[in-house]
Amino acid sequence: MALHYQRGEIAGLARLIVSVVIGVAVTVVLRVTTSVDVPLAGWAIGAAIFVLWTWGMLYSMGTEATAAHASREEPTHGVTMIAVIVLAMVSLGGVVFVLGHKDHTSLVVSTLASVIMSWAAIHTIFAVHYARIYFTDPVGGVDFHQETPPTYSDFAYIGFTVGMSFAISDTDLSSSKMRRPALAHALLSYLFGTVIVALLVNLVAGL
């Protein structure tokens, strides 16, 4: 049991590190072989791999598997969460740079992709965070209005609903331990949504 716990302990962080390393490697290869300068492509690719890898592992888990996995996934989750948010904020910084270089198509595309994938990565990491909080004693904090225990797909619903609407819809948050991260999540979602729209409008206006 202890061995399983230790593996779960590094799972999320390991996924993030491997994903970013692959993304950076692809970016370096592109730079060397094509001379295309896409500095944020590494994070865009890495974030895409992280999101797909995470949901590929978690989305189909049933109720028992979700409860068992979320309760041990993972003590280093906070490190993973901070790393994702920091990398995502760096991608927002790239928007300021790209607005002055709109004639570089590859740069614009890579920056836009990095912001969009940062948006998806943030909602993914918060969905996993909600599951971890829910299954931490005392279990609960969200009323899903169903008799069966929630699965990761239910937490994905919460994560991406907050991400797209900055609010909770038909699931009720019944404790402060859920409301606090939901507030931070909504604020980050609003920031990214605003930046994505502003970037698209600016690019279209410059055509």
TrEMBL record:
Keywords linked to the UniProt accession: Membrane, Transmembrane, Transmembrane helix
Transmembrane segments: 12-33, 40-59, 79-100, 107-131, 182-205
Protein's name in the database: DUF1345 domain-containing protein
A Pfam family matched in the record: DUF1345
